[in-house]
Specification:
- The protein is α+β, with helices and mostly antiparallel strands.
- The chain is 43% helix and 11% strand.
- The protein folds into two domains: 182 residues, no CATH class; 44 residues, no CATH class.
- The strands form two sheets. Strands 3-4-6-5 form a four-stranded mixed sheet. The protein has a two-stranded antiparallel ribbon with strand order 1-2.
- Helix 4 crosses helix 5 and helix 6 crosses helix 7.
Length: 230
């Protein structure tokens, strides 16, 4: 188990903690969060890491997760209580700053495999779209500018269609959560809604890494920003 170096109420379970838990040796916070974290790890293995008949393409629901699990770069944290949007944002900013340290504290070459899921288990399914989705929208600019992705998941589920099947809602999870990972070159479809996101991608990967299927839209988004600036 990992504890935030500056904020001692923030912790992250490692996979070994959840596969072989020792709650008799833990403080009250992690003990209370253990059932939710274990459920989430099972969901990551049984849903995110596997194919789905409605996905619309071969492979796992999230191609990123299996390698993260395999390399033990997958972490789960939890924040109890019923937070406001502002409180979720505050927690996630602190996790964001910590995440950049976690990426490098072991093998730097494995940094792109690092993923941290922060659970908000007391947020109801009814309130999740307002709390979790709103926080994610407000957090995204700061995360993207830092080269990170922040994704929302909850039972409602989020009204985000699959890339390959618009009728599929892939972001369904058993508990409300926000997930952090490093931006990768294949993320361009998620970064075309705002010029600042496309610019952050270009600055990190260059235009040549944009898949051909998205290049026209990518150029259009960046072009609209240039016209607005002029």
């Amino acid at each position: 188990m990992l504890w935030h170096p500056d904020h001692h109420d923030l912790f992250l379970f490692e996979i070994a903690d959840l596969d072989d838990p020792h709650p008799d040796q833990w403080p009250a916070g992690p003990v209370a969060a253990l059932p939710a974290a274990s459920t989430t790890l099972g969901w990551a293995r049984d849903y995110l890491s596997r194919s789905h008949p409605q996905l619309g393409r071969p492979g796992s629901v999230c191609p990123y997760v299996p390698a993260s699990l395999r390399e033990s770069r997958f972490y789960v944290g939890a924040r109890p209580g019923v937070p406001s949007v502002a409180e979720v944002i505050d927690v996630m900013v602190r996790f964001k700053d910590w995440f950049t340290v976690l990426e490098q504290d072991r093998e730097p070459t494995a940094a792109p495999l690092t993923a941290a899921l922060v659970l908000f288990p007391d947020v109801s399914t009814r309130d999740a779209p307002e709390v979790i989705d709103t926080a994610q929208r407000e957090l995204k600019p700061g995360f993207v500018s830092a080269g990170l992705m922040v994704g929302q998941f909850h039972p409602a589920p989020p009204n985000e269609p699959g890339l390959w099947n618009p009728d599929f809602r892939p972001l369904r999870s058993p508990l409300p959560l926000l997930a952090i990972r490093r931006m990768v070159a294949n993320d361009v479809p998620f970064l075309l809604s705002e010029p600042e996101y496309a610019a952050a991608y270009r600055d990190r990967f260059g235009r040549d890494r944009v898949p051909q299927a998205h290049r026209d839209r990518f150029d259009q988004v960046l072009g609209s920003a240039s016209k607005a600036a002029s």
